[in-house]
Amino acid sequence: MNKIVHLSSRQLLLALVAAPMLLYGLYLTLIAADRYVSESVIAVRQAGGESSQLPGAALMLAGITPPSHEDTLYLKDFIHSQGLLLALDKRLDLRKHFNAAGADLPFKLAGDASREDFTAYFRQRVELQFDDRSALLRVRTQGFEPAFAQQLNQAILEESDRFVNETSHRIARERLRFAEIELDQNAKRLQTAKNEVLTFQSRYQLLDPAAQAQSSGTLALQLQTIRAQLEAELNGLRSYLNDEAYQVKALRGRLAALDRQIATESARATTTGKRGERMNALAADFQALQLKAQFAQDAYRLALVAVENARIDATRKIKSLVVVEPPTAPDTAAYPLRAYNLATLLAICVLLFAITRLVLATIREHQD
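RE: above sequence
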């Protein structure tokens, strides 16, 4: 300890600045493996604009949604997934490439690395930068060879395109099955509603109680008009004929017959019929059955539209991987950043030298 306290400034400079800079410089020159970076820019977009022309209910049944940032975020997680890593390893033999970094141990994949360690290493070599404003995803892949970095980036894009297509088609097929189930249920509801209407008409032997009630009311009004005319004619005859005259008796008979007919027509709409139901009540019940059948028919029509649109979505390419910038072919190594790393190390060493020198000077003053 006493020797360390009495080290000169030159010795400290050699030990804390010169030696680390020399060793790190030798590492960067002789050992550090060059890492090349290939970049690409991608995004997920929904094809076509037909969904805006569909009705709202059909839109919900068909499951069509507008494009959003979520699709690209899902793709971002997929690119860093272990499933994609295993597929790429089988395709490009990633373990062999990343294990061939020579003696550059800090950036070399261990030969006996576990699957979890391999996944963590892969995520460090594949950088993803997501732009929230434009929903663009920048993919940066590293490799110890320029061609391999580009091949890795291209393979990721191809697997991502397959993932987007398979995912969208699987969702579309699930929505098609759901729409077909809804269509079958709506068809049964429509048939049940139609059967209820037919049963009602057969039970009461009425094609349309509302129309018949309206017809009875209209006929009663017409009969009332005729009766008023006959009554006016009768009053005119009685002004110069007695009540026993033939014309007066004939008009009275016609008025009596009209009264009976008016009472009959009014009774059809307001009084209880032979089946114990009022005509107006039957009309109200029949209208409710008609509304139920109409609603079932509208629901069936919407479900049919949803099935057709879901069937189209299940076969066409709903979402596409848009490659804004294809994978680049690097000419120069992006890593390691030799000048930046040396400057950073120099600043750290100089700071450590200054602190150490100050501490040792303080210790010497207390010893004196």
